[in-house]
Amino acid sequence: MNIAADHIVRFHYTVFEDGGEQLETSRERGEPLAVMIGRGGLIAGLENALIGKSEGDTFEVTVRPAEGYGELREGFKQRVAKKYFRDAARLKPGMQTVLSTSQGPRLVTVLKVGASVIDVDLNHPMAGKTLKFNVEVVDVREATEEEKAHGHAHGPGGHQHD
Fold first, then answer.
1. What one-character DSSP code corresponds to residue 31?
2. Closest alpha carbon to 58 in 1, 14, 4, 25
3. What domain range includes position 113?
4. How far apart are CA 9 and CA 33, in angstroms?
5. What is the value of pTM for the model shown?
6. Quick one: which of 4, 30, 87, 109 could link to 121 by a disulfide (CB 3.0–4.6 Å)?
7. Closest CA to 48 of 18, 4, 89
8. Could you tell me if residue 159 is inside a domain?
9. 138 CB contacts (<8 Å, ≥6 apart)?
10. How far is residue 147's CA from residue 161's CA, in Å, rounded to a whole number?
């Protein structure tokens, strides 16, 4: 079965900064990542590279910032009251944390910690980077009606409902 919209794909990946070091791998978690194609769960460059592939395929893809995490935006910083951070007491400059926003959770990088506020960089940590992915497609299947209604994969590597 070839990967297309509304298919659930489980895959392992390792991502490198282009010409540089390994940034992340799914193999550390043990389980492959599970996503529903066409629902915005992946950066565009990786999702587009998966389309048409099938179980057992391995490939490399280079993703430029425009189809990845976007260009690095200079000055994209904000001062936020400590009360909006779950883990404010342990945060230090350079650490990453998730900040709840009106548009949903956002990964931010701590720049400075003050007495009552924290300055954060709102750029995604991989913004502005050209990324190289090594991908192994573990399996592909059609999404169930429930998964389509929820807009995401269920089960191992996907979302677990109670």
1. S
2. 14
3. 77-121
4. 8
5. 0.81
6. 109
7. 4
8. no
9. 10, 11, 12, 32, 55
10. 11
